[in-house]
């Protein structure tokens, strides 16, 4: 028996835990979250003048993410959600995000059981749960500036 590990990609867990917190115009939790983001940005030495604008842009992006996620009640059929593909295929189908660079950065200081650095090439296979979310994300990303 040969055991292999495989990387998995899924839609994000939302910071406010429920899609409704993002899509409702103004609510207490959303306003408190906005203040928290602003305060953290200031603690990280962002200028106070731009921290509010940056916090609003972060919430705007997270709201856009919430709007393209699949609701939990649409995610029961694992066979339908499960897609195995190579990073090369992802590059062809989802060109607006460099998944190979992402995985190599995430794993840059991680080694396997033999002490060998883990490197993802275009033939590396990953499992995608909910390819439709990634397709929507790929269309969304060009609307936002890289940071």
UniProtKB/TrEMBL annotation:
GO terms for molecular function: metalloendopeptidase activity. It holds the Pfam family Peptidase_M13_N. Residues 4-143 form the Peptidase M13 N-terminal domain. GO terms for biological process: proteolysis. SUPFAM superfamilies: Metalloproteases ('zincins'), catalytic domain. InterPro entries: Peptidase_M13, Peptidase_M13_dom_2, Peptidase_M13_N. Belongs to the peptidase M13 family. This is Peptidase M13 N-terminal domain-containing protein.
């Amino acid at each position: 028996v040969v055991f292999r590990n495989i990387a998995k990609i899924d839609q994000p867990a939302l910071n406010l835990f429920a899609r409704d917190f993002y899509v409702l115009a103004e609510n207490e939790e959303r306003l408190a979250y906005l203040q928290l983001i602003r305060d953290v940005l200031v603690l990280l030495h962002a200028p106070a003048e731009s921290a509010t604008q940056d916090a609003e842009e972060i919430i705007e992006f997270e709201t856009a993410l919430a709007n393209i996620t699949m609701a939990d009640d649409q995610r029961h059929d694992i066979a339908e959600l499960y897609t195995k593909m190579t990073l090369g295929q992802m590059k062809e189908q989802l060109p607006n995000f460099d998944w190979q660079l992402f995985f190599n950065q995430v794993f840059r200081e991680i080694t396997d059981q033999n002490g060998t650095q883990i490197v993802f090439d275009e033939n590396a296979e990953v499992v995608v749960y909910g390819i439709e979310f990634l397709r929507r994300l790929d269309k969304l990303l060009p609307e936002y500036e890289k940071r």
